[in-house]
Amino acid sequence: MAVSAAGSSRAVSRNRFMLAVLGGVSTVIGVFYVGTILRYLYPKSSSTPPLPVSLSDQGVTDPGTQAVLPFNNGVAGPFYYPTVPDKSVVVGVFVEKIKAAGPLAADNLRVVEQTCTHLGCPVAWVASDNRFECPCHGSQFNRDLSVSHGPANSPLYEHDFQLKAGTMTILGRK
């Protein structure tokens, strides 16, 4: 049975009406999914805000709590570093003296991200073993950030920084 609108010579069947509705809903859903995929593939470029951190021979001053985190076999931390301007995403970082007994100089320091490169668990510094260890799956990282024992197969992430007059400004992941 065909239904026709008053004054229209074209009949609209129930099948055509349902196909039109389903086609419209499918188009809306498809546009949503395509938009989500494009947003994932081409994220907004946002610059990581710089984070100034005070350094001394005793350790690093946590910018969030103002507590001094002492160097333990040349590594201080972790403390939290906001990676987006609204501070909604943070990562833990360590400040490491490359030579534990060495000076606080730019060529003897590095900022190490606490994120394990296997599945993203936070690693811990184990001073007695002189390495970073992931408690989730047992990955171990040497002091030079290379993998000592898997399942991780990539080194820990390092962050760029500038050092001026006892203040380290962390600039973001290398």
Structural account:
The chain has one helix and 14 strands; from the N terminus they run ββαββββββββββββ. A hairpin with a 2-residue loop joins β13 (158-164) and β14 (167-173). The strands form three sheets. Strands 5-4-3-14-13-8-7-6 form an eight-stranded antiparallel sheet, with no helix packed on it. A four-stranded antiparallel sheet has the order 9-10-11-12, with no helix packed on it. 16% of the residues lie in helices and 36% in strands. The longest helix is centred in the N-terminal third of the chain and has 28 residues, at 14-41. It starts with a strand and ends with a strand. It has two domains: 3-41, no CATH class; 51-173, Rieske Iron-sulfur Protein (3-layer Sandwich). It has one helix at 14-41, and strands at residues 3-4, 11-12, 51-56, 59-61, 68-70, 75-82, 90-97, 109-113, 124-126, 131-133, 140-141, 147-149, 158-164, 167-173. The protein is an alpha+beta fold.
Summarize the helices and strands and which ones pair or pack.
Elements: E1 3-4, E2 11-12, H1 14-41, E3 51-56, E4 59-61, E5 68-70, E6 75-82, E7 90-97, E8 109-113, E9 124-126, E10 131-133, E11 140-141, E12 147-149, E13 158-164, E14 167-173
Antiparallel strand pairs: 1-2, 3-4, 3-14, 4-5, 6-7, 7-8, 8-13, 9-10, 10-11, 11-12, 13-14
Ranges where pLDDT stays below 50 over 5 or more residues in a row are none
CATH architecture annotation of the largest domain: 3-layer Sandwich
Order of neighbouring strands in the sheet with most strands: 5-4-3-14-13-8-7-6
- Rg result: 27 Å
Counting helices, strands and paired strands, the structural category is alpha+beta
CATH class of the largest domain: Mainly Beta
Helix content: 10-25%
Distance between the termini: 68 Å
Here the CATH topology of the largest domain equals Rieske Iron-sulfur Protein
